[in-house]
Design goal:
The protein has 142 residues and is mainly alpha-helical. It is built from seven helices and two strands.
């Protein structure tokens, strides 16, 4: 029975979210890359669907982050709610994407840009290059 509990604990860790630190520095650079952290940017058509707010959150992303706030566009356009959503999304998908390894800013940035498996897709390399340039060696942002 003890082995079963240990196995379930490992599964919960790998698939249930991450306690890894998603730093303010990393979060801020994602915001900068998305919109120059413009809290008044509103919604913009991007790749056939709307992206809203300073983090350019799409509706499926908002659903995956737990649907904070009253509705998607209101939350995405409110800095505090949008930050809450991004942090919840990273907590949900951080170790999922990395296969249980503690994520770092690169993983988080690529997940934000490419979805739950974004950290494994070369399609997010250019996005990470822009976030890394913003980071400029800041602690927790490398």
């Amino acid at each position: 029975m003890t082995k079963l509990y240990a196995f379930l604990a490992v599964l919960a860790f790998v698939f249930g979210g991450s306690d890894a630190v998603f730093t303010d520095a990393c979060l801020n650079c994602i915001c900068e890359v998305e919109s120059n952290c413009n809290a008044n940017i509103g919604c913009i058509m991007d790749a056939g669907s709307l992206s809203c707010g300073p983090f350019q959150i799409k509706e499926p992303y908002w659903i995956d982050c737990g649907q904070p706030g009253s509705d998607w566009q209101t939350c995405a356009n409110n800095m505090a709610c949008a930050e809450q959503c991004v942090r919840a999304y990273m907590n949900r998908y951080g170790t999922y994407c990395t296969g249980g390894v503690q994520p770092v800013c690169e993983d988080y940035a690529r997940i934000h840009n490419g979805g739950p498996q974004g950290c494994t897709c070369t399609c997010t390399d250019g996005y990470w290059d822009r976030v890394r340039a913003c980071c400029g060696g800041q602690s927790g942002c490398d």
